[in-house]
Each structure stands twice: as structure tokens, then as C-alpha cells.
UniProtKB/TrEMBL annotation:
Residue ranges annotated for the Phosphogluconate dehydrogenase NAD-binding putative C-terminal domain, each copy included: 188-254
Domain spans labelled 6-phosphogluconate dehydrogenase NADP-binding: 9-134
Organism: Streptoalloteichus tenebrarius (strain ATCC 17920 / DSM 40477 / JCM 4838 / CBS 697.72 / NBRC 16177 / NCIMB 11028 / NRRL B-12390 / A12253. 1 / ISP 5477)
Alphabetical list of InterPro entries matching this protein: 6-PGluconate_DH-like_C_sf, 6PGD_dom2, 6PGDH_NADP-bd, NAD(P)-bd_dom_sf, Pgluconate_DH_NAD-bd_C
Listed name of the protein: 3-hydroxyisobutyrate dehydrogenase
Length: 278
């Protein structure tokens, strides 16, 4: 069995940790300096808590799942401590940043894997995919940790940055389209045409625009999605593609900072935040 260090168990990381433990592996975490919620999750999941140097000394694989803005700092800390195992960065970052993180981890002696998670946190009613790119032996070692779980490993090849590119491509639609739906509903509410908008949405080939009840969930996660859309913008710009939509989406998402983790908020309140910003 493999010992895995998870940095750090938020909502997605906790779900991933549960799948890894269910597979018979040991999962370590470092709750020092983390929020009370993070520490509580670790206890509930039965993770082995320790300090970072000890975790790195014991772990064959380190899995970084954190907000994009912290991804490089986490890699620097791990590199500074001289970790020489497999370092898996599974954060929503641009391909360029993913390669930079790989270089940081590699400077300490680690073998870096670029990874991305697409899907809801894996659990009894949901599954997700763990896309992997980078050195073959390292990606295979990572895949073995979650093989057969509700987090399906998918290898994308040896080139670092491909897993992050997929995440950016998917997020550029998924995050932006949900945000645009909120803006559309806010405009419809302003002019009293919401029922007509919903009727047109029902005629669309997908129900994305019709899923009005989902908008508070978008606002609740906007604090995480805005930095991700900044990363999408960087990825688009690096590819010579227009980045304005991603930049604008990030700007709209920052309006919902006060709705952090308020997934049960009324739809009307979430949409009103957009009007207040204007």
C-alpha cells in the first residue's frame, strides 16, 4: 500500500482522501495553521495528522489540492524541505503555471505530475476524473492510488501541462456559462421577463440556463472560481486566443465575495448582488 500526503483537505481534497483511504492506502495531512473546518474534516475522515516534514518523509506521493493562488507557495514549501517523491499538483492552474510548479517541485528533487480533477467531489452519488500528465512512471504511480475508486484516473501523456490545459478548456465553458446564466436572469428579473426567459431556456438543447436554482451555488464558490478564471485567461492569452470573456467572468465572480459558502442563499439575493455592483 502507498502512503499519500494530502495538502490540504478542503471539500474536494477530503472527498479524494476518502477514496484513497477506501482503496486501502494511508493518507497523511498537516492541519497546523489550517482552519477549524479543515481540521474537523481530517478527524472525520480518519486521516493521519502530522507535521509537514514528517509527512514528506513518509509519503511516496504528495497530492496538492488547494486554491490556485496558493499552489506555487505549497510547492515551494515542499521543495524547500527536499521532498524527493512524486509531487502531484492537482490545482486549477494554467499550463504555463503548471510547468512552473513542476520546476519548483523538481528543484527540491521531486518528480512532478500535472493533474486536474473534473467533476463533483467523488462520493456515494458522484464520480470525478483525475487527469494526469507528466513522466510515465510517476503518473502510473499516481493512478494506482485511485484505481478502482470513484475518482477515475485518466492519463493524457508525458507532456507536463496537458492536464491543466484540459481543466482550463473545460472551466472556460463551465464557469463562464454558469456566470452568464446568472447575468441573464438578473437582466430578465429587472425587466419582468423571467418567465419568458425560462420558457426559451426550456427549448434549448441543454438545461443550463433553466437551472436557476443552481445560481446560489455558483455565488457560494465564486471566491474559488474567480482565481481559476484568471488562470483560464492566462492560458487563453498564452495560446493567442481572446481572454476577455474569462477576465470578465472573473470580475463578475468577485462581486459575490460576500456569498462565500452560502449555497443555500435565495436566488433573488444572489442576483441582487449583481445589481448592487452596477
Amino acid at each position: 500500500m502507498t502512503t499519500v500526503a494530502l495538502l490540504h483537505p478542503g471539500a474536494m481534497g477530503s472527498a479524494v482522501a476518502a477514496e484513497i483511504r477506501r482503496n486501502g492506502h494511508t493518507v497523511l495531512c498537516c492541519p497546523a495553521g489550517r482552519s477549524a473546518r479543515t481540521r474537523a474534516r481530517a478527524e472525520e475522515l480518519g486521516l493521519v495528522t502530522t507535521d509537514l516534514p514528517t509527512a514528506l518523509d513518509r509519503a511516496a506521493v504528495v497530492l496538492s489540492i488547494c486554491p490556485p493562488v496558493a499552489a506555487e507557495d505549497v510547492a515551494r514549501e515542499v521543495a524547500w524541505l527536499g521532498y524527493t517523491g512524486v509531487y502531484v499538483d492537482a490545482n486549477a492552474v494554467s499550463p504555463e503555471r503548471a510547468r512552473r510548479i513542476a520546476a519548483i517541485a523538481g528543484s527540491g528533487g521531486a518528480t512532478a505530475v500535472d493533474a486536474s480533477i473534473i467533476g463533483q467531489p467523488p462520493g456515494e452519488t458522484s464520480t470525478a476524473r483525475l487527469y494526469l500528465s507528466g513522466p510515465r512512471l510517476a503518473t502510473r504511480a499516481t493512478a494506482r492510488v485511485v484505481a478502482g475508486t470513484r475518482l477515475q484516473p485518466v492519463r493524457l501523456g508525458d507532456e507536463l501541462g496537458r492536464a491543466s490545459a484540459l481543466k482550463m478548456a473545460f472551466a472556460s465553458f463551465q464557469k463562464a456559462s454558469r456566470t452568464l446564466a446568472a447575468v441573464a436572469h438578473a437582466l430578465a428579473d429587472q425587466h419582468g421577463v423571467t418567465d419568458a426567459l425560462l420558457a426559451e431556456a426550456e427549448r434549448m438543447p441543454t438545461r443550463l440556463l433553466a437551472d436557476r436554482a443552481y445560481l446560489p451555488s455558483v455565488a457560494a464558490r465564486a471566491w474559488r472560481w474567480a482565481p481559476e478564471m484568471d488562470e483560464v485567461a492566462r492560458a487563453l492569452d498564452a495560446a493567442g486566443l481572446p481572454a476577455e470573456l474569462a477576465q470578465a467572468t472573473a470580475s463578475v465572480l468577485t462581486v459575490w465575495g460576500c456569498e462565500k459558502d452560502e449555497a443555500a442563499a435565495p436566488v433573488a439575493r444572489v442576483l441582487r448582488q449583481l445589481h448592487l455592483h452596477g
